[in-house]
Structure formats: C-alpha cells, structure tokens
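Appendix B. One record, verbatim.
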Amino acid sequence: MRSRTAGGGAARFAGRLLWAGVLAAGWLAGHPGDGSGVRPAVAQRPPAPTIKVAPVTQAEAASKLAFPIEVGPPEAIAKNSFIRIRGLPPAAALTEGHAIAPGAWAVPLAALPTLAIVLPAGLEGRADVAISLVSVDGLVLAEARTSLRVAAAKAGPGQAAPPAPQARSSVSLGLAAPKLDPAERERALALHAKGMEQLERGNVYAARKFFERAAEAGLAQSAVAVASTFDPDELTKLKVLGLQPDVEAARRWYERARELGAPEAEQRLRRLGAR
C-alpha cells in the first residue's frame, strides 16, 4: 500500500515538473531575452551623412557667387572631416579652403556658410563638379554633384559685346598661366601636396618651404598658399598660435601668384591694399 502511494506521488511530482517546463518554454517563446521578461533593446544604426547642393549652379563670368553646400545631420559627421571639391575650372577659385590640385579644393566644414566661387572674365562653358565629405584618414563618407554652368559676362551700357570665339571647349580658361610640362607639373603638385600635409599638422614654416619650391616651378596655387601663410586675414583661419602676419611678404607672393595665373590673387591684393 505504502509503495503504491509513494509511486503515485512520484508520478504526480514528475507530471508537475513537466507541466512547469511546458509553461516556461511557452512563456520564453513569447518573451525572448535573458528570461527576465524584458525585451533587449535593438541597437539603432547611426544615420549616414548627406550632402545637399543644387543640381545646377548658374553663374556668369567675371563674377563672385555664393556656393551653398549643406552637410548633415551633425551627429553623423566625423570629427575633423572636410569637404573636397573636384572638377572646378582651373581658373576658378573658392573664397575658402585651399587648392590641392588644379580644379580641386579642400574646404573646412566651418567655412561652408560663407563659401563662394570667384570666376574670372573670359570663362564660359560647363563643368561637372564632384563634392565629397572626407574623413581625416581619407575615407569618403558622402558624395554629391552639381553642374556648374558659366555664361559669358554681359556687356555693360555702351559697351560692345566681345566677339564670339571661333570654337568653344566645355570649359575655357580665363587667365593664361605659364605652361608646365607634365613631369614638372607632377613634381610641383607633389611638393604642393606635401606642403598641405604640413599645413594640416600646423607646421607652417615647413609648409612654406614646400609651397615656395612648387611656386618657383610655376604652380600658381602654391604661390597663393605661400601668400596665405603671411596674409593677416588668412592666418586667422589657420588657428596657429604665435605666427605673425607679414603684409609685404603676402603682397609679394600674391603678385607672383597673379603672374602665374591665379584668379583669386587680384582680389586678395585689393583686400591687402585696403588695410
């Protein structure tokens, strides 16, 4: 009698354990996680950065126009990233940033609200411009494009319109710069790139040496870069402590840049003259 009672109790106990296991399995199936009943938080992927620019930028030769570029959202922008612009006419210039190659510029994000394009007289045609958000290690984070369409400058009252050219290329240069053979140009561009690297590290004196050698080889943007390291207005953008401006040295290098065909040199010389 006692053995049957004990056997029945054991069976009932085993049945209860089995039922409890079934209930637990069903509850966990409806509540995944660690068994606490709290669903794990789903990690949110950070938003990707984007660049907003007009698909077409209409301009006129011998003018300066705003070049609005928006980058966002702020939380998606990597620290120390910058805007790289490629495909501009080599004779055009930007009011912010530095030329890194013919038609290519690096622009800090903080300078975008005041960014403008300076176009010399005689420029006409269309250029496809690529705009990239680039991280400090060179990774492209976002890209956009705009078509820069430059019309001939309109003749003023009492002025005759300039004669139409016999043939037009997609982009014509407004200023005639000295011609460099390909090998010399490659060497000068390499020197300029090394100067930009030193400038980004805050080594202004070392940067000047590279820029001066490239300018002596005939690279216009290098002469502008040297002048910028002496120009009081440009020095404030470099945020380098203890570096004194030298207006005369800046003027001398801007004059050299003008001789080499840099379109922004004339405007900066006028600005220096107004000081």
